[in-house]
Every structure is written in C-alpha cells, then in structure tokens.
Write a structure and sequence with these properties.
The protein is mainly beta. It has 6 helices and 54 strands. The protein has a 6-stranded antiparallel sheet with strand order 8-9-10-7-12-13, covered by helices on one side. The longest helix is centred in the C-terminal third of the chain and has 27 residues, at about 785-810. It is elongated. The relative contact order is 0.07. This is LPXTG-motif cell wall anchor domain-containing protein.
C-alpha cells in the first residue's frame, strides 16, 4: 500500500574489494569487526515479523543454484596456484571432535553488490568462493560470517564442487538481528543502523569429501535486506568474514524516509482489492486506510465499505464478515511525520489499535462500528475482507472499485473510492477461456415462530447465479400463517440465501362455569386456558372447588357441594381446540349444621330434661367436616358457644379440643391428623363473659393449603359448666367457616332447686307411770277465752319467722 520511492542507486567505492581470507575454524561463532552485545540483538523470528513492508514484498528473495557455480577465472583453482599472501592467512578446517586431527585449510574470496537501495530495504547479492587445501572428512565444517546482510535463505542449500559433486549443506549456525522498531522510545536508543544482522552460515561436509583433495566450491545469494527506517540518511557497511579475516565489504548510504503529515490526507486509501486467481472462488482481500491523529476515529463511529456488483461479493460465510464479529486491528509499520524517533533519527513505532465490530453485512456492503480507538499519531490500518468470485473469467490482475465511508452520528467524516455500477473491472482484461459456471443455493423454511421448530424439513435448491428461485408458502393444519422473512423470488446467490415463512398455532380458550342442579349460576365463570395453541393440554380441576358458599340477599349463606359435570360439558382434562371450550360443574345444596348436646355426669343427654342447681354438665359441640379446597380457600374454621350466664357458669380448664368426624389433615412432615386426635396445639381457645370460642390458627390452615393434597378439616369442642340457678335454659352452638356462621339445633332443659325433707310432728310422750301433780295455790282469773288467743298469735309469729329463714336458705343454696 505505502510504497517507498525514497531510494539511492548511487553506490560508494568499496573499502575492500575481492579480499582473500584463509580461515582456521574451531567450530565457534566468530564476530569480525567489533563487539556485539547480546541485548542489542533479536532473533530471526522477530525480524520476519517486523521488517516486511509492502515495498519489500515486491522483491522476490532468491538464492543461487542448489549447487555452486564454477569458480571465476581470476581466482586460483587449486592450492598449488595460491599466492603467498593467501597462504599466509590460511586456516584449518574445524571439527566437533576434539581428538580429531584437522590439517586442511580454507582460502576464501567474496564480493558484495548492493542495488535498489531504499529507506526500508536494499537488494544485496553476495558471492563466496573457497578452496580447501588438504584432506577433509565427513562432519567437518567451515563457517562464514555476514554482517548487515540477510542470508537466511542459504539455510538448507546444497554446495557442490566445480565438477558437480555435492560436498555438503549450508545451515544458519546463528542469526542475530536488531530490526525491531516496535519498542519504547527508551529502548529505541539501542537501534543501530550498522548492527542489523549478524549471521554465521556453516558448510558441513558430507561423505563425498572423504575421497577428494584440493576441493574448490562457490555459493551465492540475492535477497532483500531490511534497513532501519530513519528520518535521516545514514551509511551502512555490509561485511563478509572467513575466520578472523574480512573478505568483502560494501558501504552505501541509506536514504532518509521523510514522513508526511496526514492531516490533509484524511482517510486516504488506494484501490488494493485484487483477485488472486480468476478461476478460484474466493480470495482474501484487504482494504486499507490512514487515520490522522488530528481527526482520530472514536467509539461509535461507523466505517462502511462497498464493493461493486457482478464480479465478486463478500464471503458472508467467513467469520470476518459475519454480523457480531469483533476484532482488533493494529496500525501498519509505516512512519509518518509525527512518528517518534530516537536521537539518530531512527523511527520508533508506537502501535495504535482499533477495535471493530461488524454490525451489518450483505453481498456488497459491510458496516463496521468502532468500539474502541487508540490513535496517538498518524497511522495506517488494514481490514481483512474475504470475498467470493462471481465471474470466473476475470483476469488475475483485475482491480475493482470500492467505496469507503466514515460517519459519526449520521454525518459523513470522509469518503474515498469510486464505486461503479454494473461490471466493476477498471483495469486488466476479461478472458473468456474455460469459464467456470458459478452457482448458488437458496433454502426455503416453514417455521413455528413461537417454538422456532420446523413444520416441515427445509428445502434447498441450487442454480446458476443468473437463474431465479421461487419460495412457496404452504398451509398447515392447526396453524395460521403470519409473516415471511427474506425474498420469495430472486436470483441464486453464491453466499446462499434463505426465505423463511413463519406460522403460529391456531388458538383456543377453555372456560369453566358453575351451576346448581336446577341450572342456576352459583358462581361467575372463570377462564382456565387463555388463547392457547390448538393441541395444548388443559386441566380444569384446579378451578373445581369442592364447596362453594354463596351469601344470599338476606345475609344467610348457602353451601353448595360439587356433584358432577353438567350435561353437554366438555371433559375436565383434554386438548385445546380452535375456538371456545366450556367445562360446566354442577353443585348440590349441602346443609351445615353443627351438633350440640349437653350431658349429665352419667353421660346422658339433658335435652328436654330437668337438672338441679349445683349440677355439673358437659357441653359437646361437633362440627361439620369441610374440604380446604373450598372456593377461595379455607381461611377460618372453628366453633363458638355463648353460655346462658344466668343459669350456667364455665368450669375453668375443662376444655378439650378434638379432631372431629371425617378429619384428615396432613402436616408438613407428612403425618396425618385423624378423627379423635388432640388438636389443641393448632387451635386458639378463649372464654370471656360466657363466650367460648375455638378457632384453628391461620398459619395452620395456610400450611394445609400448601401441602398439595385435599384436607378434610373438622373440630369437636368439649367443656364443662356448672348449673347455678333454677329456670328454663335454651342454648345453641355456632360453626364458623370463613366469614359465615352456621347455628346448631337448640338444647333445652329446666333447672330446679333441690327438694328438702319435711319434719314429722312430735308425738306426746307416753308416761309409764302416772304423773303426780302437786297442787299449788294459784290465783285463777275468770275464764274469758284470752288465753287461747295469745297462744294462737305466738304460734303464727313462729311460723312466719320460720318461713323467712327458709326463703333465705334457698337463695343461699
């Protein structure tokens, strides 16, 4: 994308030309021409990752032949032809075996040619020629050192003698680079243009040399060598060494890279969408653009890319083009005017980042949303956009128009490119050749919109991209068509297309009505199942109370108990059908009359009988069992008795609270209360001024309502009372169910005073012997009858007093 035209083809004179060196190699790395510290070096892997630019990629790195060419005529071909100067610098061939006697020497000459010198890279050709004086054996080797020259491609290449015998293989024994410009400004100070590559290439001899003497060979390499990109021109020296001797050097000037301020080139872009192969069905294209720091993108901005029609489309099956795909892109290694530099002018790249998300995509347009943006300087970015070729006759070099638009809150920030209608080829030519028929597919689906289940297996058809498909809507039993997603008729697409027809189940409603045996409504109807799809299971039993209590206009309460389903009623459990379904419950009237009785000490009923004051009587009230599935739920249940306090008095601590007839109440632990069980712990009891009340506690009834079973609730109330006064007594009991009260039959009896024994008159004593009466001298008054009258008065007074005492005693009793 960003081409470097800043090159320098003028080469300085070589400081050393056709140097000859003789090496005695001892198997170790030899660094010629100065010390290189380890912290200034990076691995070759790092170099590959950071030094490739667009301009570098245009030059193909090459290595000379698999076997070495014949040596040039200006160099000796045998050891006997070597000059005294060459012999004086001879060296011994190295070996990894410490005990092995190594006596052979290697004589080397080399040349370096640097061409197409650019700010980012140069094309460098090297040629190395060597003669071996003496005998070498398999496994021995000779090393060559290359400084500031990329010779990585020599790794694995074979070397042959001048007569074509392969004598060994080259390998990279060590490779240190210092080209990483993605560092902090502090670390950027360590970047040295004359310390970019330091590579040791080793030739290891094979078994063929065991029978050869005076071996001569040559190898060469041409490759693009990366330069540190600098804002200032600088000189760099390339060197080749053999042993301790430098055998070739080349010094040239690397031109400066003048970074431009991108403020006036907002979002500048180029047509860089290429079809790799005309007969392929896909390609990995990329669209690139520059973001100036003065107009940095921000979160929420949109980037819209559009490509022309008919020639190729976006590959919507590729994850990079699918809606929701989120990814980060890092800025390109291209220096601009505001890119940081070290003190030597070498650019130190600060890597900026964009986080994007695909928010919409179709064959010809993709929209990206900026989620995060870090823009600290002018930077270039690239987005990968896989495409699908729709015209296989396109020439490989054809370039296609596109448009690139940046928007913020609906306003266009900038736009570039030039979209053409119809055929979008703007360069190159079409070739008919062996055209490949491009086809596409279309799928039709019929779906339940609510469950997302298929009503019928989807159907996929295939045809040429120029052919037309038709999707047909179908009818399904118990379903109603509601909408369609997609086009029902159109051309086949290489990305595939889909038409989906959506349906919903036809619906029905189930309601419940309540009538008595003569057809009168006793409770308003309820809806059990509201507008549900046909075929849905329904069960109205949860709307079937066992008892319904109705408050009449006169304040009385009528109790209705479930009897049966009405004539013509739908089933209680079934499937929803289209329309309305009616379930009718019929109830019969039921009497709720608590039973009250009063017993004497012998356990005999005193109803209609007579008791006497002072007697102790037992009052027993039996309730009527009722289901807790009563309409509205059972919220209150109990018994009440109001004593005639003129004649009866409650005996303290005499109460008994017993589960009544038909009781079946399941507790939370699964145990069951049955008739006759003591339930006093679950009942609130009170007595005040003769009003006796026993009520099941609200939390107990709530527990029964939540146990998921139908409970039968009942209560018997038993207590004692003392008869305290004579008279006629009538008493009734009350059963309490929710807000209604039901009265028992009256118990009537009479209270009398206890009868007292009547004393028998005393008889005159009979004397066994005659009584002797002495005569006395008494004055006798005339008989006037007054004596009898006085006795009568005295006798009457005594009787009156005695009567008064009798009345008082009865009251005290």
């Amino acid at each position: 994308m960003f081409r470097n035209n800043q090159t320098n083809k003028k080469r300085k004179s070589k400081s050393v030309k056709n140097l000859v060196g003789v090496t005695v190699l001892m198997g170790g790395l030899m660094i010629v021409g100065g010390q290189v510290s380890a912290d200034e070096l990076t691995s070759v892997t790092d170099t590959a990752a950071v030094t490739t630019t667009t301009s570098e990629a245009e030059v193909t790195s090459t290595v000379d032949l698999e076997t070495v060419n014949v040596m040039t005529s200006d160099m000796a071909t045998t050891a006997s032809e070597l000059s005294e100067e060459m012999i004086a610098t001879s060296a011994v061939v190295a070996s990894d075996e410490a005990s092995e006697d190594v006596s052979a020497k290697v004589y080397t000459t080399a040349t370096i040619a640097e061409n197409n010198i650019g700010s980012t890279s140069s094309e460098i050709a090297v040629d190395v020629k060597s003669i071996v004086d003496g005998t070498v054996t398999s496994g021995q080797y000779v090393d060559y050192t290359f400084d500031n020259i990329n010779v990585e491609n020599l790794n694995g290449k074979s070397v042959a003698t001048t007569v074509g015998t392969t004598i060994g293989v080259l390998s990279v024994a060590s490779n240190q680079t210092n080209l990483n410009q993605y560092v902090s400004e502090q670390d950027g100070e360590k970047l040295n243009p004359n310390n970019t590559y330091h590579t040791v290439v080793r030739l290891t001899f094979n078994e063929a040399v065991n029978t050869l003497k005076d071996i001569s060979f040559e190898f060469s390499n041409t490759a693009r060598t990366s330069n540190l990109v600098s804002s200032l021109a600088y000189e760099v020296t390339r060197k080749i060494s053999s042993g301790d001797s430098v055998v070739a050097t080349e010094t040239n000037e690397v031109p400066a890279w003048v970074g431009l301020d991108q403020q006036n080139y907002t979002y500048k872009s180029e047509n860089i969408l290429y079809i790799n192969q005309g007969v392929q069905t896909s390609s990995n294209n990329a669209i690139q653009f520059v973001v100036p720091v003065e107009k940095a993108l921000a979160a929420g901005d949109l980037i819209t890319t559009t490509i022309g029609k008919n020639s190729y489309v976006y590959n919507l099956n590729a994850k990079e083009n699918q809606v929701g795909y989120t990814f980060d892109i890092t800025s390109n290694r291209v220096p601009f005017a505001d890119t940081a530099k070290n003190s030597s002018g070498v650019y130190v790249y600060n890597s900026d980042k964009l986080k994007l998300q695909v928010v919409s995509a179709d064959d010809n347009k993709i929209v990206y949303k900026v989620l995060e943006a870090t823009i600290t300087a002018d930077h270039g970015f690239g987005i990968n956009q896989p495409t699908v070729v729709t015209d296989p006759t396109i020439n490989n070099d054809s370039t296609f128009n596109y448009s690139l638009e940046f928007t913020r809150d609906g306003a266009v920030l900038a736009a570039s490119g030039n979209r053409a209608d119809g055929d979008t080829i703007v360069s190159g030519t079409k070739t008919n050749g062996n055209a490949v028929v491009v086809t596409g597919t279309h799928t039709t689906k019929w779906m339940d919109r609510e469950t997302n289940q298929e009503l019928e297996p989807a159907q996929t058809t295939e045809g040429k991209v120029t052919d037309t498909y038709d999707s047909v809507r179908k009818d399904f039993k118990d379903y109603i068509y509601v909408s369609v997603d997609g086009v029902t008729s159109g051309n086949y697409s290489v990305n595939g297309s889909t038409t989906t027809f959506y349906y919903v189940r036809a619906k029905g409603t189930v309601d419940v009505t309540y009538h008595n045996t003569v057809g009168d409504e006793i409770k308003s109807a309820v809806v059990d199942t509201v507008s549900s799809p046909v075929g849905t299971k329904y069960d109205t039993s949860d709307h079937k109370p066992s008892v319904i209590m109705v408050t009449n206009a006169d304040g009385t309460t009528t109790v209705w108990q479930y009897k049966e389903l009405g004539k013509g009623s739908a089933k209680e459990v079934g499937d929803v059908v289209k329309g309305n379904t009616h379930v009718d419950y019929v109830y019969a009237e039921a009497a709720v009359v608590p039973v009250k009785d009063m017993l004497d000490k012998e356990g005999r009923s005193i109803n209609g009988k007579t008791v006497t004051t002072g007697d102790i009587v037992t009052i027993k009230i039996d309730g009527n069992a009722i289901s807790d599935s009563i309409d509205g739920g059972l919220t209150r249940f109990g018994l009440k008795d109001i004593l005639d306090t003129l004649h009866l008095e409650y005996v303290d601590n005499s109460v008994k609270l017993i589960a009544g007839k038909d009781t079946h109440m399941m507790l939370s632990d699964g145990s069951v209360i049955k008739s006759g069980d003591d339930v006093s712990r679950y009942v609130d009891f009170s007595e005040k001024d003769g009003e006796i009340v026993a009520i099941y506690r609200a939390e107990f009834l709530k527990m029964l309502a939540e146990n998921d079973v139908e409970d039968m609730v009942n209560l018997d109330l038993i207590f004692d009372a003392k008869v305290v006064a004579a008279g006629d007594v009538e008493n009734t009991a009350i059963e309490i169910i929710n807000d209604s009260e039901f009265t028992s039959e009256s118990v009537k009896f009479t209270v009398e005073e206890p009868q007292k024994d009547t004393p028998t008159p005393s008889e005159a004593p009979k004397a066994d012997t005659p009584t002797v009466v002495k005569e006395q001298s008494v004055a006798v008054l005339p008989s006037t009858g007054e004596t009898g009258s006085v006795l009568s008065v005295v006798s009457g007074l005594l009787s009156f007093v005695a009567g008064l005492f009798g009345v008082r005693k009865r009251k005290e009793d």
